[in-house]
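Entry 12.
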Amino acid sequence: MTTHDPDKNDILPGVPASAETLTSAETSASARTLASAKASEETPERATGAEADAGAGAGAGAGADASADNDVDPNAPYQRRIRSFVLREGRMTSAQQRAFDDHWARFGLGYTGTPRDLDETFGRNAPRVLEIGFGNGEALAWASENDLARDYIGVEVHSPGVGRVMNALAARDAHNVRVYKHDAVEVLEHEIAPGSLSEVRIWFPDPWHKKRHNKRRLVQPAFVERLASRMAPGGLLHLATDWEAYAEHMRETMEAATGWKNRVGPGAVAEKPDWRIETHFERRGTRLGHGVWDFLYEWHGA
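Predicted 3D structure (tokens):
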């Protein structure tokens, strides 16, 4: 097994296979962490930035399980919003910390709570893709080299992953990626203009597999409705999960949502698209025999 040197491995290589050197201490406990790893590796319940239904500063902490039953309905807009991840910050390496010092001004977007002029941010007018909970940023780094016609906005609440992807972007001299370290729901609601997104990606969000925690799942009717308001006509929502029960929940939620059409067919699971690169965590799940479900839904208006 390769010995991990954290300072040497903080720039993502150009191909996803190199992510085999990642360690759980460095990684963002987010969208890429397999839910089933909890059972097989006896780790704590997965925290996530992919399920970014909460702010970076509003993590429920290690006691989230004890308080989860007291949360309110995620679809009730005037009640306190359920926080759908536990913010357990992993140790940042010195290279990841330097990324904030050296690269945040270039790649980081500070949350302001007001609509952002993305044409000004990127210096051009182009289709925009939002990735919620990018984990280590493997997909963002890949897109910065392989999808230059579009601009990418990544949202993640865990600092190690944000630092790691900024190092990767700097190494590639990327110009079409910016990142938030903030609550994706707040970013979506307050900083993304209506009708401005050509695609939204939510890959391997926390499944919150315990029944009493299902209400913490990001993909809920109220969230999907908010998301729809930010989509351009024909915009694509790409969901992926390795948790079968969550896949069924996603399917039911999206099939019931007004204005969305499954690109493959009603209720159908899509083949893995080429643009969803295989990450370190997905490869680990595949070795353990876990399935993966992809859903592609297009926005056609209410």
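Annotation: Residues 1-9, 11-72, 74-80 have pLDDT under 50 and may be disordered. DSSP finds ten helices and eight strands in the chain.
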